[in-house]
Design a protein that fits this description.
heterotrimer; A mainly alpha; B alpha+beta; C mainly alpha; B: alpha+beta; Immunoglobulin-like; 2 domains; five-stranded mixed beta sheet; three-stranded mixed beta sheet; 9 helices; 12 strands; C: mainly alpha; Cytochrome C Oxidase, Chain A; 17 helices; binds heme-A; binds dinuclear copper ion; binds copper (II) ion
Chain lengths: 201, 333, 559
């Protein structure tokens, strides 16, 4: 048994620097790994079912390349990066501007996706129940869109806080975590775009 | 040596479905592999288990021990290396032997005399089709025996009409799943005549337990005779049998025909087993019930009482109709 | 370097017992990793008793042929609920419970990285379990009693499609598993982040207690393994609710795809469960052999190796689906290879025992039993991995025996050891050794009666998941013995539960380091105060308490 005189080295002052990674960054990295695995499974299902639908409509007949929305989404990665680096330099206006741009571009992307879906459902008559293409298309694109929505909500909160002047340089680390998530959403779009609109057609 | 091990095992645990009593090539090669794997793992168990036992006894704390802590040993790279390399060698050996058996079974060339049978799993019964011979039957599979000198194996093409099932007759071969929307194959070549038992091995719903398999291996002559009989449409002579004749009429006018086929009649349903030669079968309900008039009557009256959860509903027939339908069905040889 | 006496930091903590409602409020709202850990553990124990009870019912039904104790419908629900509960609501939470409790203490941290996420993860998993059992009431709507899911714990398609599984029982299953998956991912994220970002000064990765390493590897697997399950459950929900066709074979969907998705989760999952169990053994065996663990770097490398290889073996659960020779061969190889790193672990434990001074306290007894039982279980795994042999054994009682041998014989057994070992830390009281020995012997005898003999009917052609069987297949006597063993296990488990409760009130007071152990958690009082350590500790080796007790033979000199 340990006696009452026992001690454990508690040190008050640092001998060597002891730096550990920021927990927000580690956490979001873990989340991104887990989310990537989810997307991977949906992508696998999409690819596996390409050309296996028993009835139409087929992707080649109804899908158009969403060039504009892709440009919007991808450029929003730059704006959010701009917001973070502005905040690092304690440039609060720049940060607000960057966030506003990101929210705007993200919103445009969502609206365009919405229009695409409206067209497919309303004009073409393709729903999730129609065939395997419909099933995999709406679930993969929808899963991504859900992530865009979540990201947009958080970005909007950040924007509102920033507009009311509550976002300071000390929050840069946190905003960075959010921006990592947003970059991830963008990167996933690249994959979705390639699989659905390039490979799948 | 394998044979004596086999007999020893059979002495302890006798069973008509033992995997240690193979009667066809795929089961036999799996058995051979199993003996190899069992002896290797047994050797590993004895070695490692023995060392563990020794360590636990030898190094236990004794009252005479001093209070000092034992010498602290943190590791040794040589030792680590040796117990990495030896298992790798064992694994490679096991892997190569396994691969050989896989290829022997899965990549074996198909002889031209092979018999083809399509097996379709249904929720809780088996459909067998002999496409080249024009025979359709259910629940009891008949195959010819195969002479190793001039093999006539039976190739089974497996699929499912609803959920997953698995075809497993342990003495003939390992199992292969029946999966909807997918075609699997396996082959069997029983070498002596007899009845080989098995049962569905993939959970397929409520009555998975009573989806039994019966494979009748027959001499070429017996098999040919069986085929001949199955090829005839059922044209029972009902002239001397008023009850059966009436039963036929009742049958043809009730819902039975939506689910059952009797070749050559208006009954062409495919949801339930083909009844054309029902009376030639030993059992009904895919195995668990002997095919007697009494059982047949009870089955038709209330299938659920014999196989709870079965997909055939009770038709709520009155006693008279039950009697005559039973009489009719017993004539379907 | 300043040395502060431990007692100076801890003496103020007073354990007062307070009114129940206060206590309840505190537990429900807590974000303290220790309380959450205990809640995870308590919750898992509750479900262990429920699912164990289901197992006993199944064994009664199967004890004799043609038994009518339960109907086929009830039986099918029993094994589905038993399997799902045991995996998702017993084994996962109990491992996360111990991880939650111990990881911050072992690395000298004050709490987990994200305390509120931690609470969220616990409650969402807990809700999942309750939701699944609610299906007994709500599966067919409240009027259709007794409608729990009956699709088996891997719920193969298309049995789960609306056509074959009408009503809502399968919906409860899929939602419950989905929630549990979300909870697990949250906790895993928390554990990895805690280990990477919250270690105390000097706690390099090469000094982490092995339990922490194993929790981290297990959590890492959670990210890549549980997520596919989550994805597959989302697809199933889309199928069932929105009429999608992922697993709808009538519309061209594939049943095999579900199998792949499930086992991409399912196989790594069993390693998620067994790695923390290895962690327990890694902590307990050295202390009771009075030796440092042999080959620490090899142990870490082997664990990480197991983690990676385990991602590539999933289709050994699918040897019978008709994969073709190439696929089969690949998965035979990857599966067999996993025995190499696993063997390294076994051999290192052996070497740790070797030359030690083994003290047979109850925790150690369970660990010794673990070693033998895991050895056998692993070897039956090797038999299963030889594909042609597997074609015979798959989906038979041999498989059931194999995995209970691992799960009960290795995981549950080492878990019992962990309870006896860390209970003093968690409650401040020792568990009774006498009762512990009774528990040990009853449970181990029961285990062997049940699961040794369960292999035999498998070899004699008995498939799993059958609610009854015919006489004359040579299965009768074996199944009776198996059933009797289950009763022994029940008796052992009841004694264990009694011991847990009794010791809480009557146990000998433990002090902060009853086992003369070496890792940091034994430096805090028992139970530890909410802030764990009064001052952030600094360590200079992997066994800080050893260094304190043996200044003449410091651990750090061997690094
Ligand atoms: C929980 C933990 C757990 C663990 C650790 C394992 C470990 C292993 N399992 Fe098991 N397994 C399950 C849980 C587990 N399993 C479950 C739950 C199922 C069924 C699920 C279901 O269908 O419901 C299953 C099913 C299962 C199957 C599919 C059976 C089927 O349905 O057809 C297979 C097939 O290969 C398999 C193999 C293995 C192997 C090779 C190991 C290896 O990891 C074992 C490695 C260990 C050793 C080999 C022993 C020590 C090593 C040495 C002493 C070195 C020397 C040895 C050699 C060189 C061989 N397991
Ligand atoms: C953590 C995982 C775990 C654990 C610990 C267990 C523990 C046990 N299991 Fe389980 N089992 C599974 C996971 C587990 N199982 C899985 C995944 C399946 C597959 C399901 C499927 O096919 O879908 C399965 C399937 C399964 C089957 C096969 C069913 C079938 O295929 O038809 C059987 C049959 O005997 C069985 C038995 C047992 C027994 C006797 C125990 C015993 O060790 C239990 C001992 C514990 C207790 C008995 C608890 C103590 C209870 C009390 C203190 C309460 C009082 C009790 C009474 C009044 C009786 N299990
Ligand atoms: Cu058919 Cu099980
Ligand atoms: Cu596995």
């Amino acid at each position: 048994m340990m006696q009452t005189t026992s001690t454990i080295p508690f040190s008050a002052q640092a001998e060597t620097p002891w730096v550990l990674p920021h927990r927000g960054v580690v956490g979001i990295a873990c989340l991104i790994i887990a989310e990537s695995a989810i997307f991977l499974i949906f992508v696998v299902a999409y690819v596996y079912y390409i050309g296996k639908s028993l009835s139409g409509p087929l992707p080649a007949q109804v899908l158009e390349l969403p060039i504009l929305s892709t440009i919007c989404l991808l450029s929003s990665s730059f704006t959010v990066h701009f917001a973070v680096s502005a905040l690092r330099k304690n440039d609060q206006r720049g940060c607000t501007l960057g966030l506003a741009g990101t929210v705007l571009l993200g919103a445009i992307f969502l609206i365009m996706t919405g229009r695409e879906w409206y067209h497919l459902i309303h004009d073409v008559g393709l729903t999730i129940r129609t065939n395997l293409f419909g099933t995999t298309f709406y679930s993969l694109v929808g899963l991504h869109a859900t992530h865009v929505v979540i990201g947009l909500i958080m970005l909007t909160i950040a924007l509102v806080l920033s507009l009311s002047g509550q976002v300071k340089e000390t929050h840069a680390e946190r905003l960075d975590v959010l921006s990592l998530y947003w970059h991830f959403v963008d990167a996933v779009w690249v994959v979705v775009f390639l699989v659905v609109y390039v490979l799948g057609r | 040596m394998y044979n004596s091990t086999r007999l020893a095992i059979l002495g302890v645990a006798h069973s008509p479905t033992s995997i240690f009593d193979p009667a066809a090539t795929p089961a036999r090669s799996a058995f051979g592999l199993s003996m190899l794997v069992l002896s290797v793992t047994l050797a590993i168990f004895l070695t490692v288990g023995g060392m563990l036992l020794y360590a636990v006894i030898r190094f236990r704390q004794r009252p005479t021990d001093s209070d000092r802590e034992p010498a602290q040993i943190y590791g040794s790279n040589q030792i680590e290396l040796s117990w990495t390399v030896i298992p790798i060698l064992i694994v490679v050996m096991l892997f190569l032997s396994t691969t050989r058996v896989i290829l022997d079974t899965q990549a074996a060339p198909k002889p031209s005399d092979a018999l083809n049978v399509t097996v379709i799993g249904h929720q809780f019964w088996w459909e067998y089709r002999y496409p080249k011979l024009g025979v359709v039957t259910a629940n009891e599979l008949h195959v010819p025996i195969s002479d190793p000198a001039k093999p006539t194996p039976t190739y089974l093409a497996l699929s499912s009409a609803d959920t997953d099932h698995s075809f497993w007759v342990p003495r003939l071969a390992g199992k292969t799943d029946l999966i909807p929307n997918r075609l699997n194959t396996m082959w069997i070549d029983p070498q002596s005549p007899g009845l080989y038992l098995g049962q569905c091995a993939q959970y397929c719903g409520t009555q998975h337990a009573k989806m039994l398999l019966r494979v009748y291996a027959q001499s070429p002559e017996d098999f040919a005779a069986w085929i001949k009989q199955q090829q005839r449409p059922a044209e029972p002579d009902l002239s001397g049998n008023a009850a059966a004749a009436e039963g036929q009429t009742v049958f043809m006018h009730s819902a039975c025909i939506n689910c059952h086929t009797v070749a050559g009649t208006v009954a062409t349903g495919r949801f339930g087993p083909d009844l054309t030669h029902l009376a030639s079968r030993d059992t009904i309900a895919s195995g668990p019930v002997q095919n007697t008039a009494e059982n047949l009557r009870q089955w038709i009256a209330d299938p659920n009482s014999m196989k709870p959860g079965v997909l055939m509903p009770s038709m709520h027939l009155n006693d008279h109709d039950l009697d005559v339908i039973t009489a009719y069905l017993t004539t379907l040889h | 370097m300043a040395h502060a006496p431990v007692l100076e930091a801890i003496d103020q903590t007073q354990i007062r017992r307070r009114p129940p409602l206060d206590v309840l409020y505190e537990w429900v709202t807590t974000v303290d990793h220790k309380k959450l850990g205990l809640m995870y553990i308590g919750y898992a124990l509750l479900f262990l008793v429920i699912a164990g009870f289901e197992a006993v019912l199944m064994r009664i039904q199967l004890a004799v042929p043609n038994n009518h104790f339960v109907s086929p419908q009830v039986f099918n629900r029993l094994f589905t609920m038993h399997g799902t509960t045991m995996i998702f609501f017993v084994a996962m939470p109990v491992m996360f419970g111990f991880g939650n409790y111990l990881v911050p203490l072992m690395i000298g941290a004050r709490d987990m990285a994200f305390p509120r996420l931690n609470a969220f993860s616990f409650w969402i998993s807990a809700f999942g379990g309750l939701l699944m059992y609610f299906s007994y009431l709500g599966g067919d709507g409240l009027y259709g009693m007794g409608s729990a899911p009956d699709v088996g714990w891997f719920a193969y398609a298309p049995l789960t499609a609306k056509v074959f599984s009408p009503g809502h029982s399968t919906d409860y299953w899929t939602l419950a598993v989905l929630l549990s998956g979300v909870g697990s991912t949250g906790t895993a994220l928390n554990i990895v982040t805690t280990v990477l970002s919250m270690r105390c000064r000097g706690m390099k990765l090469s000094r982490l207690p092995l339990f922490v390493w194993l929790m981290m590897v297990a959590s890492g697997i959670v990210f890549v393994a549980v997520s596919p399950l989550t994805a597959a459950q989302i697809m199933l929900i889309l199928d069932r609710y929105l009429g999608a066709h992922f697993f709808d074979t009538q519309a061209g969907g594939s049943a095999v795809l579900w199998m792949h998705f499930f086992w991409i989760f399912g196989h790594p999952e069993v390693y998620i469960l067994v790695l923390p169990a290895f962690g327990f053994v890694n902590e307990i065996i050295p202390v009771f052999s009075r030796k440092a663990v042999f080959g620490y770097p090899a142990m870490v490398a082997a664990s990480v190796g197991i983690g990676f290889i385990s991602l590539s073996v999933w289709a050994h659960h699918m040897f019978t689906v008709g994969m073709g020779a190439a696929g089969n061969t690949f998965f035979v190889f990857s599966t067999m290879v996993i025995s190499v790193p696993t063997g390294i672990k076994i051999f290192n434990w052996l070497a740790t025992l070797w030359g030690g001074k083994i003290i047979f306290k109850v925790p150690m007894m369970f660990c010794i039993a673990f070693l033998f039982q895991f050895l056998v279980a692993g070897l039956t795994g090797i038999m299963l991995s030889a594909a042609p042999f597997n074609w015979q054994l798959s989906a038979s009682y041999f498989v059931v025996a194999h995995f209970h041998y691992v799960i009960v014989g290795a995981i549950i057994t080492s878990l019992f050891g962990a309870f006896y070992y860390w209970y003093p830390k968690m409650t401040g009281r020792m568990m009774s050794e006498t009762l512990g020995k009774w528990h040990f012997w009853l449970f181990i005898i029961g285990f062997h009666l049940t699961f040794d003999f369960m292999h035999v009917p498998g070899l004699l052609g008995m498939p799993r998941r059958i609610y009854t069987y015919e006489a004359g297949r040579g299965w009768e006597g074996w199944n009776l013995i198996v059933g009797i063993g289950a009763l022994f296990q029940t008796a052992g488990t009841l004694i264990f539960v009694y011991n847990l409760v009794r010791s809480y009130y009557r146990g000998e007071v433990a002090g902060h380091d009853p086992w003369d152990a070496w890792t940091l958690e034994w430096a805090t009082p028992s139970p530890p105060p909410s802030y764990n350590f009064a001052v952030e500790p600094t360590v200079r080796s992997g066994r800080p308490l050893w260094d304190l007790k043996h200044p003449e033979d410091l651990d750090e000199n061997y690094e």
